Amino acid sequence: MMAPEDPSPDELLARVSALEERVAAMEAGSPGADGERTPGTASDGSAPTAASGAPVTPPASSAPTPPTDEEDPFWALTSLKAHAPTPGAVVFAGAVDVGAGHLEYQWGRPTEHLLGTDWAEHAESVAALGHPLRLAMLRRLLDGEHTVAQLVDELELGSTGVAYHHLSALQSGGWVTTPRRGSWALATPRVVPLLAIITALEKG
């Protein structure tokens, strides 16, 4: 058997270039042939968080272009089923432009995790949303920071005491923060989750 010929300098250069491209793609978090996950998604399907608690998202250049509705009207579900085999998982995500600016967020959990947790632990957060006035406040805060006086004026509340009562409940539920004295804002990591809840409550 004849020994294979040594590759030419041009062939070696082409191989090195291809290897560099593959390494660059892996460092950028682009999905490879072996199904590597993209940045912004943890191994358990959840979005990793930075030290501040804000979601970490992939750069726009590395995000794959989703299929159009004409190609697959259920492209998100199709992708989820491909990444989370039976018994599956639940994922929500959003890329939105609101008063706080452009926000991107993804969070997900395997079915086993969701069925194995104590749902009662979320009662306070859920209960905080259970009042029309609080939802109206959150809608105003989605547009940007408000003072109590502004909320009282815009929502035609009877007094600042009423506003503080509901803001306190929303703060205890983790929905709002006070970035500066006398000012209230919707907690940035809760913007997409709130919009996901509102979306889920629509009657399809």
Automatic annotation (TrEMBL):
Key words of the record: DNA-binding
SUPFAM superfamilies found in the cross-reference section: Winged helix' DNA-binding domain
Residues in HTH arsR-type domain copies: 124-203
Alphabetized SMART domains for the sequence: HTH_ARSR
Compositional bias of kind Low complexity: 40-63
Region (Disordered): 1-73
Keyword Transport among record annotations: no
InterPro entries for this protein: HTH_ArsR_DNA-bd_dom, WH-like_DNA-bd_sf, WH_DNA-bd_sf
Keyword hit for DNA-binding: yes
Lineage: superkingdom: Bacteria
Protein name: DNA-binding transcriptional ArsR family regulator
Organism this protein belongs to: Brachybacterium fresconis
